[in-house]
Design goal:
By secondary structure, the protein is an alpha+beta fold. The protein is 18% helix and 48% strand. The protein contains 2 helices and 12 strands; from the N terminus they run αββββββαββββββ. Strands 7-8-9-10-11-1-2-3-4-5-6-12 form a 12-stranded mixed beta sheet.
Length: 207
């Protein structure tokens, strides 16, 4: 009788453990998006063509300050900056000497990084599905409910509840993967880091 009770408890615990494991990545994602007022990290971004071949790798630094502020500093192979603040996002290409300004909107067409600011209701805007583990990360797939979104899906990879990577697939068959390292939680970031002023002499286009 005791053996049966113990066996039953072990089986129940196993089922509960499996259920928790299935729910954990999505819960971790939601917790991450609601916590941590700021974040800094190094990143590696790899773009793939339609044939699945790596086309280009970029490296730089990423900064996040909630609510609504982030900065991508691309350092190699080309200098670029993407800065979000006050409902706008600035795209600066140093080689082209060009700045493009866009309004952040619910479609996330401006930049999927808006997800990381915690301003987006992911349950309202996306269908969430767990994708298992890869590269030591637990992945969650976010498929936009809005058909006009510029992306087919966004994957977010978590490492023990912290941001580890992202994968973006757009409507043109392009795939981009981003891996984060040297992550620092709640660093003191100056507001000026998210103030972008176009350099003199560059062309500025605002949508």
């Amino acid at each position: 009788m005791i053996k049966k009770i113990v066996s039953s408890l072990i089986l129940t615990a196993g089922l509960l453990s499996n259920a928790w494991a299935e729910e954990a990545p999505i819960k971790q994602l939601k917790t991450f998006l609601k916590s941590n007022a700021s974040l800094s990290a190094d990143f590696k971004q790899v773009s793939y063509n339609k044939a699945g071949q790596a086309a280009q790798a970029s490296f730089g630094e990423f900064y996040l300050s909630r609510p609504g502020k982030f900065r991508w500093n691309y350092q190699k192979p080309f200098a670029q900056e993407i800065v979000s603040n006050a409902g706008k996002v600035w795209f600066y290409d140093a080689d082209l000497e060009q700045v493009t300004i866009k309004q952040l909107d619910d479609s996330l067409g401006s930049t999927p990084a808006l997800l990381l600011t915690g301003q987006v209701d992911i349950d309202q805007k996306f269908v969430l599905e767990e994708q298992g583990s890869d590269d030591d990360l637990n992945w969650v797939r976010l498929s936009p409910k809005n058909e006009e979104s510029g992306f087919k899906y966004i994957l977010i990879g978590l490492n023990h509840g912290q941001l580890g990577g992202m994968e973006l697939s757009d409507n043109f068959g392009q795939l981009t993967r981003i891996y984060f390292s040297n992550i620092k939680l709640n660093p003191l970031l100056q507001d000026s880091l998210f103030d972008f002023k176009p350099p003199k002499g560059v062309d500025v286009f605002e949508n």
